[in-house]
Design a protein that fits this description.
By secondary structure, the chain is an all-alpha fold. The protein contains three helices and no strands. The longest helix is centred in the C-terminal third of the chain and has 23 residues.
Length: about 80
Protein backbone atom coordinates (compact mmCIF):
# COMPACT_ATOMS: atom_id res chain seq x y z
CA UNK A 1 0.00 0.00 0.00
CA UNK A 2 2.82 2.44 0.86
CA UNK A 3 4.59 1.94 -2.51
CA UNK A 4 1.32 2.70 -4.29
CA UNK A 5 0.80 5.93 -2.34
CA UNK A 6 4.41 6.98 -2.93
CA UNK A 7 4.08 6.26 -6.64
CA UNK A 8 0.91 8.34 -6.86
CA UNK A 9 2.54 11.22 -4.97
CA UNK A 10 5.61 11.05 -7.22
CA UNK A 11 3.44 10.99 -10.34
CA UNK A 12 1.45 14.00 -9.10
CA UNK A 13 4.69 15.87 -8.42
CA UNK A 14 6.03 15.13 -11.90
CA UNK A 15 2.72 16.22 -13.44
CA UNK A 16 2.65 19.50 -11.50
CA UNK A 17 6.28 20.20 -12.41
CA UNK A 18 5.51 19.57 -16.09
CA UNK A 19 2.45 21.82 -16.00
CA UNK A 20 4.34 24.60 -14.24
CA UNK A 21 7.21 24.55 -16.70
CA UNK A 22 5.19 24.21 -19.90
CA UNK A 23 2.33 26.63 -19.07
CA UNK A 24 3.94 29.55 -17.23
CA UNK A 25 1.83 32.51 -16.19
CA UNK A 26 2.17 35.49 -18.44
CA UNK A 27 2.12 38.72 -16.40
CA UNK A 28 -0.02 41.54 -17.68
CA UNK A 29 1.71 44.41 -19.43
CA UNK A 30 3.09 47.01 -17.06
CA UNK A 31 2.76 44.98 -13.84
CA UNK A 32 5.55 44.55 -11.33
CA UNK A 33 6.94 41.06 -10.59
CA UNK A 34 6.07 41.19 -6.86
CA UNK A 35 2.55 42.54 -7.35
CA UNK A 36 0.88 39.36 -6.04
CA UNK A 37 3.02 39.44 -2.88
CA UNK A 38 2.08 43.09 -2.37
CA UNK A 39 -1.62 42.26 -2.75
CA UNK A 40 -1.23 39.40 -0.25
CA UNK A 41 0.36 41.73 2.30
CA UNK A 42 -2.42 44.31 1.89
CA UNK A 43 -5.10 41.62 2.36
CA UNK A 44 -3.25 40.43 5.50
CA UNK A 45 -3.29 43.97 6.90
CA UNK A 46 0.49 44.48 6.66
CA UNK A 47 0.46 47.84 4.90
CA UNK A 48 3.88 48.94 6.20
CA UNK A 49 5.76 45.80 5.09
CA UNK A 50 7.33 45.87 1.64
CA UNK A 51 7.35 42.71 -0.52
CA UNK A 52 11.16 42.72 -0.45
CA UNK A 53 11.27 42.80 3.36
CA UNK A 54 8.65 40.05 3.59
CA UNK A 55 10.52 37.77 1.18
CA UNK A 56 13.87 38.38 2.90
CA UNK A 57 12.36 37.67 6.32
CA UNK A 58 10.69 34.49 5.03
CA UNK A 59 13.94 33.27 3.49
CA UNK A 60 15.93 34.06 6.64
CA UNK A 61 13.38 32.40 8.92
CA UNK A 62 13.32 29.28 6.74
CA UNK A 63 17.11 29.02 6.71
CA UNK A 64 17.36 29.62 10.47
CA UNK A 65 14.70 27.04 11.31
CA UNK A 66 16.24 24.54 8.90
CA UNK A 67 19.63 24.97 10.59
CA UNK A 68 18.01 24.63 14.02
CA UNK A 69 16.25 21.42 12.96
CA UNK A 70 19.55 20.09 11.63
CA UNK A 71 21.30 20.84 14.92
CA UNK A 72 18.55 19.41 17.12
CA UNK A 73 17.67 16.34 15.09
CA UNK A 74 21.04 15.63 13.49
CA UNK A 75 19.63 14.47 10.15
Amino acid sequence: MIPLLLSIAFGAGVYLLYEGLTNPRVPAQGTRPLRSVEEFLVRAGLHDVSPRDFLLFSLGAGLALGALAQLLLGW
